[in-house]
Design a protein that fits this description.
The protein has about 250 residues and is α/β, with parallel strands linked by helices. Helices cover about 45% and strands about 15% of the residues. It has an eight-stranded parallel β-barrel with strand order 1-2-3-4-5-6-7-8, surrounded by six helices. It has one domain (about 5-250): TIM Barrel.
Amino acid sequence: MRKPIIAGNWKLNKTISQAVDLVTELQALVADVSEVEIVVAPVFTALSAVAAALKENRIGLSAQDLYWEKSGAFTGEVSAELLRDAGCSYVIIGHSERRQYFGENNEMVNKKVRSALDAHLAPIICVGEHLAERQAGKTESVIEDHVMGAIEGLSANQLLTSVIAYEPVWAIGTGQVATPDQAQEVHAHIRRLLAGKYSKEVANQIQIQYGGSVKPANATDLLSQVDVDGALVGGASLEAESFAGIIAAARRN
């Protein structure tokens, strides 16, 4: 059985004090949850403070991005080692907003994944298609391109310390949500790709999240799908009660 993982990507939101308040409230709401892997991803400036507020290991800390070099003349960048030092155990890599606004491509994503793994950070690797690509029937080919590009050169053991997050770009922040059947179809496709590259045994162990306007109201149906192992949550993770509601849905499944 794959343990469900619910991760909150706070994006460019929350001051340090607001982030600490949010995670403090969240901890109280999920204090008895052990069967769901819970992760929060604040902005860089709040990481250390949130790490200090997470008194127990029940909630994991993630960064929203990293740079693949360990150190050097790379103004404005943050390395995997610095994220570990700040208290992170996870890092989100290849989010569609990074691709869209900052020009990230598969090669860059792969470098970041390798750097994260070298520093013993669990990468949450994002993949997903735009609306025009779905309408053109290119969903599976786009997903294959993103997945295979991101995991190029990874061993099976390295893959198993990673998480894949399927985020249909057309559903991120739009209020549109893939139907449970659409989500399941793509998650199953990802698992087939991994089985072909590694083995069915390996593919059946990796966690694959769904991301794209996940809310308490739709979480149960999405998370009930056999190959959907959790959610990468955006806006609904900015309020403790709504995020806890999604975690509760994961417990029921």
